[in-house]
Amino acid sequence: MERFDVNCTLGRWPEGGPTWATTGQLLAEMDRLGIGKALVRHTLGRFYDPAYGNQVLTEEIGGEERLFPCWTALPPNTGELGPLGPWLSNLLAADVRAICLYPKSHGYPLAEWQCAALLAPLAEQHMLLLLELSEVSWEELHWLCKSYPKLQVILLNTGYRVL
């Protein structure tokens, strides 16, 4: 059985903690833990600039068949990722099959009026959506799953006490 890690991150964390600055370091750690493949995000996408973080991630893991990119997304009305159509085309051209949202960290509600323009086309692509428990309320999560059943949602960092 091959292990596939869906909660893997490249880059430095502002508060410290495990840091893998290069794909080589990450792959060595994956080998040590017996992980065959990983879905990878970049800390720059969360803590600095999502567009730049996506670019750096794509460049750093490009050509590495064990690592799969997970881009950071924002609602289109922020304008930070450019127009939605070209961004979605770039997403698909880069063979990105997962995105991550950070609603609380990036300061927007996970709500229809804010996110429908982004979520609807991602759902049509059966995209994988990563959300950390600390970034979303249970009500927002319920709305998301009910409204976009084709969107595959993975809730991260739940811990064993979340029932």
Low-confidence parts: none
> What would you call the shape?
globular
- What order do the helices and strands follow? EHEHHEHEHHEHE
- Report, as a whole number of angstroms, the end-to-end distance: 27 Å
The rounded Rg comes to: 15 Å
How would you summarize this macromolecular structure in one to three sentences?
This protein is of the alpha/beta class and 163 residues long. Helix content is 40%, strand content 22%.
Characterization of the model:
The protein has 163 residues and is an alpha/beta fold. Helix content is 40%, strand content 22%. The chain has helices spanning 23-33, 43-47, 50-61, 84-93, 103-106, 112-124, 138-147, and strands spanning 3-10, 35-42, 67-72, 98-101, 128-132, 152-156. Strands 1-2-3-4-5-6 form a six-stranded parallel β-sheet. The protein starts with a strand and ends in a 7-residue tail after the last strand.
